[in-house]
Give the backbone structure.
Amino acid sequence: MLASRLAFSARRAASTRAISTVTLPDLPYDFGALEPSISGQIMEIHHQKHHQTYVNNYNATLEQYAEAESKGDHAKLLTLLPALKFNGGGHVNHSIFWTNLAPKNQGGGGEPEGELRKAIDQEFGSFENFKKTMATKSAAVQGSGWGWLGYSPETKRVGVVTSPNQDPCSTTGYVPLLGIDVWEHAYYLQYKNVRPDYLKAIWEVVNWKNVEERYLVAKKHCWFEGVTDTLPVVPGLVVDGVGGSPVPLTGDNADKLITQAAKSRFGHNFDTKMDEGVRKSWQLQPDQPQFTVADWNRQTDE
């Protein structure tokens, strides 16, 4: 009996160490800084209430997941996946959304420049055509969801897509660059049921510098997104993709799984690069579960 309890405690401790909880990020500006485009009341409720709820529910569900995993309760694990996706997506999407916006006196509004502008003009013909496409598709989202400007690793082009509820942009095959929240809580207190008015006003506070930074990173690291998209989701180490949802891996299998996925998608050269870079310094420790893009860059650039 004692041995059984000790084994259970060890499994539960190992599972708990593998979990990576999330926290509510600070807004990079005051609640009222986006007025008159978005009221301070909306921003405060949106950030302090709605986003905080996604964070709380995601972390609580993770604890339940760890307990179910430690007991080998696979049926329970399956019932928890929708809540993980919904609340985790809510956290990921809103974390992007806050940085996609900025007050007018801090870079909000105007038009994109540089490589992002060229990509938009190439895909849509002009910035105005892009805005019309983004507004039309976002306004047409039934119920709640998101409108996205994203980058496709497959086509190497930008595009406008939508996702329902709190599904992340990455579920559409695109890396998120600019997200517009079209849940009613994002605009109803100010724009009532007239979603198009909200979609017209939000352009005055879009942080195009942030959007372009995301575009440049997505272009540089689109291969990394491809690897994470092909990996199975199992509890353990969390590999954080560029702008995408975390992909959990087991420490024992992570090296093999990433190598296998990389070889199938990118060929032997990528495998060789991993041999020379990542494998020499990648230490998978239970108490250090986060392996981020910054870690990957540092190791592969050495």
Q: What stands out?
A: Residues 1-17, 222-252, 261-302 have pLDDT under 50 and may be disordered. The radius of gyration is 21 Å. Residues 152 and 174 are 5 Å apart (CA to CA).
